[in-house]
Amino acid sequence: QVQLVESGGGLVQAGGSLRLSCAASGRIFSINTMGWYRQAPGKQRALVAVITSDGTTNYADSVKGRFTNSRDNAKNTVYLQMNSLKPEDTAVYYCNAHVIPYAWSTAGNYWGQGTQITVSS
Q1: Cα–Cα distances in angstroms (integers) from residue 108 to residues 49, 78, 85, 103, in the given order
Q2: How many other CB atoms sit within 10 Å of the CB of residue 18?
Q3: Whole-angstrom Cα distance, residue 65 to residue 61?
């Protein structure tokens, strides 16, 4: 089965930087869009950044200019470089990928386990 495993993150002071990574494993034929969502307590899950298979990126307005999404197709891995972090960035961050496995009937969106990012003031 396809799995997405996230790493990185943790506690950081305002103005600091963190980098998240998310690696997909399994019998994968290809991966289309990969990206990141976040959810703070009492709020809805929101899209942060996405990146297509050819490297085209889109960002939420709240993170544009501060976050950079990238991917390594050879490693089936997506990264989120987060700079100039603010307390309002505090949330659980979830990796997401649209995966085409060799078993095409199981193609679809897959999610990472989530990782807590806390930015102190």
Answers
A1: 18, 17, 31, 11
A2: 19
A3: 9
> What residue type is assigned to position 55 of the chain?
G
- Residue 102 CA to residue 107 CA, distance in Å, equals 9
**pLDDT in the model for residue 19:** 98
At residue 49, the pLDDT reads 98
Residue labelled with tokens 């078993």 = 103
User: Are 68 and 19 within 8 A, CB to CB?
Assistant: no
Structure tokens at 77: 């891995």
Nearest to 69 by CA among 105, 95, 90, 43: 95
Q: What is the pLDDT of residue 94?
A: 98
The beta strand positions in 40-114, using DSSP E, are 46-51, 57-59, 67-72, 77-82, 91-101, 108-111
**Cβ contact 29:97 at 8 Å:** no
Q: Which of 3, 11, 18 is nearest to 68 (CA)?
A: 18
Q: What is the pLDDT of residues 29-53, one digit of tens each?
A: 999 999 999 999 999 999 999 999 9
Render the burial of 48-74: b for 16+ CB within 10 Å, e for the rest: bbbbeeeeeeebeeebeeebbbbbeee
